[in-house]
Amino acid sequence: MPHPPFPGGHPPPSTSFAPAPQVHLPSNVLGSGRLDEEVSCLRTIADCLESSFRFHSNAMPVMAGANTTSAEETCEFFDLIVSLLSADSDPNRLKTLVFDVQPSILTLLITLLDIPVPQHQTANQAYLECRVLIVQTITKIVSLCTDEVSGPLLADRCAAALAQSNFLSTAVAHLHSQTAGWMRDVDNIRVAYAECMFVLVMRVESLAAGLIQLNGVQTLFDCLFSDPSVMVRNYACAVLRVLAERAPEQFVALPIVERSVQQIKVEHSKYVVILLFETLSILFYASPGTYLDRVHQDAHLMTEFFDIIQTFLSGNTNLDVLTAVVKVIEAMLLLEGSTCGAKCQFTTRLLTQGGGKVLLQREQISEEIQTLKVRTLRKLIQACTSPKLCEQLHDAFTHFFPSLSLLVNADGSGTAPGQPPPCAELRQELALTFA
């Protein structure tokens, strides 16, 4: 699975910001081990950020003549926070800076998010970008505190801080399709929350359970199939894939197969397509009876499901996409094979509707893709467990054999002119297929 396979990283700022405000890190602090100075520096930045953001949110009075920071300048505080925290990944240092100084920087950032957006700021791009940067900074802090170096201790502290402040509830609310007001018109805030949710469920297992309790699966399901932002769909699908592995029972009541088939037909993001195919294969293995029955009992769904599989198998040369498609094919073949011919519609279609031919076409594509196709052919042969399927396989194999014998030559003597000999991995798959 691509984690996360999304180009561009964080959403680009929506406006050009003014130079950074005059808040400087003490000399020789970064990486110096002078923890007391780093604590003081972080506290100064946090205080400046809080006072400035509250001022622009009309959440605190300001004395006449006070020196205030513009919304554009306020955005620069977030880079200072991340630069200071990421200068040294020592877990004890991060524990002190992020959690031991009260209020913790995570708590402060979430508190600022809870401040309502004043009406006069709904069109202020710099102010709205500040809110996006708050979420992105929370994401970066959690990432720093949950890497392999930091271990489970800081991950637990992150989970406790986020749970205490109900951050997951806020994130789910922002992603919900019925969220009202200015947020519906600002893609970046939804993207930031979706990305943060992905990092949280990937890095902190208890937060995945918390998300499920908040009906997060349904919310992400709705985002995946209705949100206009491709980045939100990317992250929503990535989170659903993780949850499918950890709590597949949460998907049984959802029309995940039906909606996935429809979405794959129209989806422009190859990452969503890959993740949807992978999610389906995970769910098929987790609850084989449920999804096998669902596909077999709906003739129209079976037809559409097979058609998209056939389309991607024959017309896609992207290795990641094809790998995901093959996973779904292998899952269906294995599940149908286990029924001893009682349910074999997908296998039959693959045998009789040109699937074998597609699997054996040796085009000018990578050997990795060719190997995947031959492996799928082997799984197809293994799935033929009933006399009827074996007869169909026998008829089809008379057409398969010439192509197979050309591919299996180790020295390439039998390959078509201009084509290279097969690689060792491909020959191994072919040998297993013959066996």
Large-scale geometry: elongated
Radius of gyration: 27 Å
Order of helices and strands: HHHHHHHHHHHHHHHHHHHHHH
Arithmetic mean of pLDDT: 79
Q: Strand pairing plus helix content: what structural class? A: mainly alpha
Low-confidence stretches: 1-32, 178-185
Instruction: Give the N-terminus to C-terminus distance in angstroms.
Output: 31 Å
Biggest sheet character: none
Helix content range? 55-70%
Number of strands: 0
Question: What share of residues are in beta strands?
Answer: under 5%
Describe, in plain words, how this protein is organized in 3D.
This protein has 435 residues and is mainly alpha-helical. Helix content is 67%, strand content 0%. The protein has 22 helices and no strands. Helix 9 (187-203) crosses helix 10 (205-213) and helix 11 packs antiparallel against helix 12 (230-246). The longest helix is centred in the N-terminal third of the chain and has 22 residues, at 35-56.
